[in-house]
User: Fold these one by one.
Assistant:
Number 1:
Amino acid sequence: MGPKAIALPELAAGGALLLLTFVGASQLLSLGLERAVCVAAVRATLQLSALGYILVPVFRLNNPWIVLLYITFMATVAALEAVGRPPYRYAGMLRHVLLVVTCVAFFVAAFALFVVVRVGLDAHYAIPVVGMLLGNTSSSVAVTLGAITGAIKDSREAIEVRLAMGATRWEALKATVQNALVLGLTPTLNQMRIMGLVSIPGMMTGQILGGTQPATAARYQLVILFMIATSAVMSSTGVAALVLSACTDAEHRLHAQRLVKVQKRKESDLLLNLVQAVYAGAKGAAAGAKRWWHRMTAASSPAGAALLDQGVNPEDEEESLSDVEDVEHVEWGSRER
Amino acid sequence: MALVARNLRREISTQPGDSRVVFTNVSFSVAPGQVLCVVGPSGGGKSTLLRCVAGLDELSAGNVALGELTPHALGLPAWRASVCYVAQSRWAFPSSPADTWAEVTQLRAQKAREHCHGDPVAVACSVGLDAALFSSQWATLSGGQAQRAALSIAVALRPEVLLLDEPTSACDPASTALVEDALLRCGAAVVWVTHDAAQPQRLGATLLTLPALSREVTSV
């Protein structure tokens, strides 16, 4: 037996109270938040309702491939969220964050669903669990990214003094990375520490409303909590390593100029970003395939061999094509060469 | 060992396809105990030249070596421990020069040459910087004091080569004289960027003049 259904007029009553109090307070104190709260409330309503409808067929079909596809979609949105917040960005940052968020989400979700809860790719478990993981991963990645890129920009001169005295790039940036990681991981730790003291956490609330025994619901909440902390530490560390590789080179030089200030984007651009990310992913995959094809054919075909002899890299042309972001293109792993 | 630089050139790309030459065809050699003064108009690439020799910026052409040893043969951290660059800008550490010394001497490349290290406080005193100031916060030091504190650290690390970017720009004449004297006695090969016309003569230095290249734009 599920919880009691909420009729539309009942939902409207809740919304009306929110708007009344918020707009009232905003008018009274001249906060100027009237428009923002209306937009936020309408957005939340539309997004969650759409989610409700999208999830109906996903749950009904309960097909592992569709579940995987949906998880990939959520991971992309989470990566976009994380990339959108920090004040600085570098070419290839979206790709780095997409890679880290997707890998971590898949690994931790697989552990949770196949080792801990052992239900497999059942849509009823997988989608809410991965959704919660990704939401939290996205914010720790955003905080870590913001802290590291900001600190590199701010303490650029101190970092260069260390390098000039003979520090390796790791020695020069260690303190920066440590601070950023502590900053990024602290909210997760705090959340774990106060869990259950102040309020019943969201997922447990949901399960109790759905008729689950509180003891069972508590265990589910704990599993989620442990998995959230796991993905936070994995993704923050991964992103930190990738930022370091993007801002330094194998000769232990700092390239702080690769971090460029972001002009504040409007929230509605998320959709645009999403389209761009899918486009970037598709182009990246196509370029990768092409590169592989060149590598396979260059060794055998006379034309390719001639190109290589002249020192012309056949990859160069595709690189400029696959560059979707507006700043200098960074290729995977090219920093270490 | 002498620092030898051959045909150094540095270009920066201003926009795709175009680049600006910062300096080109620069060659010099400095033996231990000698001073080479780099002079020329602002924007002539003097600081960039020092950064390139230290390996903090990339050279577009040419090479540097310490005797027979190149930066790549030594590894860049070991090269920079031996060829120490002191930037013109103030060292912005949230600590004291003494803390910075402690931190720098813990670097792997510096620990390898620990036996060379001297006493930074003694050097600081020789350039007129009070021992107490060496233990106070960087932020509380005046421009000239911070400059001499940074220099004391670099000199006490006893590198083979010191690359100094206007090391006395914030010092009064008396302090400048002390700094010049300390650097002449430190035994390192010194490459010294200066805007003080009389300084090269006081130091008995060889001169290297970097001309202002007329924003030359070449198509790549």
Number 2:
Amino acid sequence: MGERIRHMLVKEFLQLFRDPKLRRMVLLMPLVQVMVFGYAVTTDVRRVPTAVVDFDGSVSSRDLLSRFSASGYFRFVSRTRDPDEASRLLDEGKAGAILRIDEGFAQDLRAGRTALLQVIVDGTDSNTAGIVLDYSGRIAGEYSGQVLLARLSRLLGAVPPRKGIELVPRAWFNENLESRNFYVPGVIALIVMLITLTLSSMAVVREKEVGTIEQILVSPITPAEFILGKTLPFALVGYADVLMIAGIGVFWFDVPIRGSLPLLLLATTFYLMTTLGIGLFISTVSGTQQQAMMTVFFFYFPAVLLSGFMFPIANMPVLVQYLTYVNPLRYFLIVLRGIFLKGAGPETLWPQMAALLVMGLVTLYFTTRRFRKTLS
Amino acid sequence: MNLRRVRAVARKEFLHIRRDPRSLGMAIAIPMLMLMLFGYALTLDVDNVPIAVWDQSGSPESRELVSRFDGSRYFAVRLRATGYAEIERAIESGTVLAAVVVPRDFSSLLAGSRAAPVQFLIDGSDSNTASIALGYAEGVARAYSRDVAARAARIGGERSMPEPIEVRSRVWFNADRESKNYIIPGLIAVIMMVIAAMLTSLTVAKEWEQGTMEQLISTPVTSRELLLGKLVPYFALGMLDVVLAVGMGEFLFHVPLRGSLFLLFGMAAVFLAGGLSLGMLISIVTRSQLVASQLAIVLTFLPAFLLSGFVYAIGNMPVVIQGFTYAIPARYLVVILKGIYLKGVGITVLWMDAAMLAAFGAAVVALADRKFRKKLM
């Protein structure tokens, strides 16, 4: 048996690395992807291009506006007294927000009335819009609080006013709240799944299309040996990708890795068993490579979207949340983020590890059985 | 160019598609599945953040603060903790996302002249959710402080005071800030790119692999006729996907369509022609279905998903990457679709993006045509 597997492995390795174009792709793909993900995928909202319409032009209005520009969240691209000009900027997408202060702002403030600040945001990206509104609420609220305190101390004279509470926030695991730290570990799961799925889903069906599957059928090789021979080279590619992406994440993007590397590799093993099992299963049930590729994407898109990679699972409808429990990506993401950011060990991560292992065994079992059926 | 021969190739390709009902079904099911997921299941909105509370003071003042957290629709108190260890465990295991810690001497601190510190510990690993939740918490704290100060003033004999500054916010183009309204127009662009590339990136490579290309070469059909004939059925299929997606957006998700439908389909057609030709180009260059599929992913699927501004706003990316996005055709279509859908703008605002899209289409078609002729000789 060992002999036969060896031959099978040699054949598969040759096939995988013979084509120079494919060799380049397998190495280049994760590199391009992690770079794009690392740089482009960000939900940090900073320096929003903002148009300012200040009809008041008083010391107070300028003071409030300067707090906006000093916060680093807003970048003033236009100061105008023409509201149509500001609307045009928003229309064209050159500004993401408009801050408007009408005449009488300083007067209202002095007289103890409520002064108005208008914030108009571009809602075509509702996430950014929400964050921008939140920032403006914070900045204006802080200013407002100070004015209120000043009014109170004027009224109360010698008695100092109460200041209420001060929120002392501390973010654990990702102190500066950088979205890169959240996304880069997750990228490992995404890329490894994509590469191993596409490679393995083509593996069997390719032999079918070219007709070499008959030659394998007449050889003494058993289904289990065949599956093993097909998975091992791809698994190796998977491990290489994990190490490469993790290396780039840690050394290039400065993502912390606080947990243990051996645990990461063990989890990767379980995860690879699942993805390769699913890929080979797709391959055995597909008639053409076109079908296999379509089926892979039919699986891959929902798997990514329902994994918690970008969209938090807690915000999904309850029924869909249950669906995510059969998604291997969900578990591997928790493990990855646990190891990278939280420094979590097996004592916290064992349920996810166990789920991955069970999924891996089940998919490999069904794939082997399905393949045996194809043979007979 | 002989139209009869083009039609013959198109008919052959059409038969191929019809004979493979599963691929055909997937080409229609994948867009629908993605639309359903984005329309119903996925949102970046944050509410009901599960939090833990450790109220060491237990005074009426601290209870009021806690009830304000619990009462806001942004937070739900899931755990009354009695120590840091308990909080740490809860945050690490993910049962709560954040914790509010009120100090023992809260009420006496509150009566003093300095602000009483209240700790807010939060799991920062999901930075987006964390910063939104932090913003909510600061809002709760601000409102509480204001009321404390105002109440103290009333004890001193003053009536209630008005809030000095009110922020009146308005959200244009998407008044309720519904994420589906901005995601679905962009999603149509992504779906088209993915489907276009998936459909065509394998067709020429398959003919090479199976040796049927030689048979085609030996017929009088020219390379240009072959290319065009192969494009026609996939173009029809792609446009069917667009019609389906627009229909679902209209009738199922009620995404407002404020601009011209005619412009929308026109732009989609231009983009689709470019996308299909790009898939064809990949197929011509690689000659192997396996390599073609990998290349299609890197060149079409990933950029369309990540660099088009569909979910991740281009304005938030580093400047170098922003420059890079100008080379991504999906970027222009996302701008166009969002413009037509949400802003209701027409070609007078969108002409630049439309021109870029047309230029991309023309360039890819020309390149595919040239490469194909060279390969055949």
Number 3:
Amino acid sequence: MSIIDEKGLIAMQQNTVSRREFLKVVGASSAGVVAAAAGLPVMAASSSAAPRAQAAEIVLQTASWPYTPLPETEPEGGYSAYEQALMIWLEDNPNVRIETVEVGIWDTSALLTAIAGGTAPAYFSSGVIGSWNVAGLQAAYAQGLVADITEQYEAFGFEEKFSALARAGSAYYKLGDRVFGVLNEIAPGNGIYYRRDLLEEAGLPEPTVDWTWDDVREYARALTTEDRKGLVMQNWGLGWQLGAEGLGDNNLFSRIPDPASGWNWKWDYTSFPEVYERTVARYRAMAYEDESILQDVTFNDGSVAQSFYNGEAAMMTNPSQFYTRVTEPWPYAMAENMGRPMEEVVGFMTHPRGVSGHLNPAARVVIPPTGLNPDLTTAEKEAALSLYNFMEMEDGFDLQRRLLYEETGDLKQAFSIFPFPRAKDTIDGVEGTAADAWGQDFIDVLNFQAEVISQMPEAGLFFPAEENLGPTGDAWADAQSTLSYERGEVDAMAVLAQAEETRNQQAAGFVSSTPDDVFVEAAVAFYAAHDAYWQKVAPEFHENVFTPWYDSVIKPALGM
Amino acid sequence: MAQESVTVTTPIGAEEQTQEQVQTRVTRRGRIEKWLFLLPALLFQTFWGWYPLIVAFLLSFTDARPRGPISWRGIESYQRMFNDPLTWQAFQVTFTYAILSIVLTFMIPIFVAILLMEMPRKHMRWMMLLWFLPLSGIASTILWRYLYNAQYGLFQYIATNILGMEPQPFLNSSDQVIFWLIFPGLLLFGPGLIYMAGLQGIPQSYYEAAEVEGASFWRKIWTITLPRLRPIIAMTLTFAIIGTLQIFDWPQIMTGGQPGGASRTVVMYMYSLLSNLRYADGTALAIMLFAVIFGITIIYRTIFREDPDA
């Protein structure tokens, strides 16, 4: 649908009113197609004082993400909302051209090759080369694989434009005081989706932020039938349960500062044996006794989502960002298929807490930052970020969402992929809020993840980035899958001891790029921040679990 | 035998030449032509084969990275990979995969091809059609994931509901995962078509002569068929050894190296290292794998002679 009728188009062709001005009038009137003529009141220009693209010709090459060029001719159904917004920006920046290039930006080796060879597109998702975690991203930044955009970030005022949640995840796109990325979307945190209708049928109350994995086990058991499992999880599902206790992989109790060693860290998968054994036993009981988990070594996020969509499971673990996706196989499309309002069918709750109240860091905000090609010139970076600013932070974003709403009449379409990276969480010309679209209960969970869980201290904000990432996570993944899938009796502590030994043996081959004194100072601050955090959000956990461990393990290791 | 010098008749006005001179010119021209024909392949092999190999070898002694300066680190990466338990686990998995794969998907098609040749032509064509399944990579992944699913997969249904077995773990078992990853290869007939082409090239008169001598079916296979297939088997086995020792796509997509690292091959671990920006370590591991494959190939080619009359 185009909002530009014949008179409006003639007016623009005669340059009596710019496309941007015309669309602002349309937006202000909240009407659909509006007849336009010369003499429309000139609206105020965009409030942003952000720099525009330079005058010299600039070509932005994209691999069809996040922006594509305009089609050569108008499509049969008219220009899409995105294309209409893009037209406005291109009109304001006539020296910029967008071209498509064939680069596998979602494949790590293809993208690294392109970056090394100087053929990378203007934009890519930095997580592809940064292993989707803070340490990997910061290492990529330290190696110069992503453009430094600090100057442009300040010039466009992104710090003020980004939401509080986006800023809470700054470790994903910053390294020290340098900036290496912007945000096309943010994932508030991982959690559990549940079939609200099936919970109601089973007489189960809706979960709360204080629920535990013992509660989840009860729910899963009650929701399991002959044709359906209670819960479907990815192949790393056990990791969710251990993470709730602060255990496993690089979680709080499992990666210990060791300044005396070359690498500065060591792994500990054998302390808290009773907690490990209880957690592993519960997971295996769910899988092999209750038979309430749908799990397989081949399962990833997509497989889990598909199983939930197909009705093969009543609950699934997945990031919260998929709650607001309006495509298959996510809950919105599932409810549409069922012909029922989404609010009646699907709910979402953050990850369960540990037994003594520890919060799962997996429910922290995750940001897949958008990085720029490190070979871009200053003018090209400005053009790229000018486009981003318009399409994601300012008028272009509002226009796209407004047009979608006008076309579909569906508030969820307008507020899809929520929360927005920008601080402004309303849409000009659209009456309604994200809570109206997705339900206040979902927004309340997001707020909890943003305001409580995402405030958990992030190591990337305390420790300098390592250029060499050290041991891979394979040893932990091996232990986790053995504990999850091996049938019969499994000696959990022997498996964990093996993983610990392997990881520490691997670490012995590395030397940290951080001097010992700098590391100790950072570690002292990091664990002090944890001390303050847990005292505030989980006092029982802080007193009974964290403090004894902090006093007996961390302080001696750091010479405190 | 020495050639007598003979004067060669040449066209009117042309210089007279001896046969030796003509022969020398022809020989030299022949050599130049041969080299010209070989040149494109040599250049391709040099720039796409040997040059990257040499560069990779040198990079494995540095702190290699895609951008920025690199510095010499000596054998640091090799030491790290030698001392990494996952390196040896990956080699063990790779050798297990290679041996099992060659036995099941390389040896069996030889005998299948031989048996197919005994069938009437009409039946043989139908059998080949059934055996050769052109499955696309991505589509087959989705299909096989469904088939192997330990809870609702077709194979589980067959195992429990039809064969009355206990529920099977399939890909979820560290003991069985390699076999189930190789299993689809059995259905694809592997190099069987190449064997059949080779079998059709064996003169029928050999078999007729053997039958006259009273040779049994298996005696004919052992004394005629297999020796005649030897060059083809030698060539395809070389490729099979090199290919299976570098296996990556299929296990990476299906299991990601799990469970317990039981399906993580050397190339998969290399990929993991590169994904973690450990370029020098990944390159060192690649060189180690190259050395192993090269050594095995040399030994194999020395032992296994292709000449059936040797």
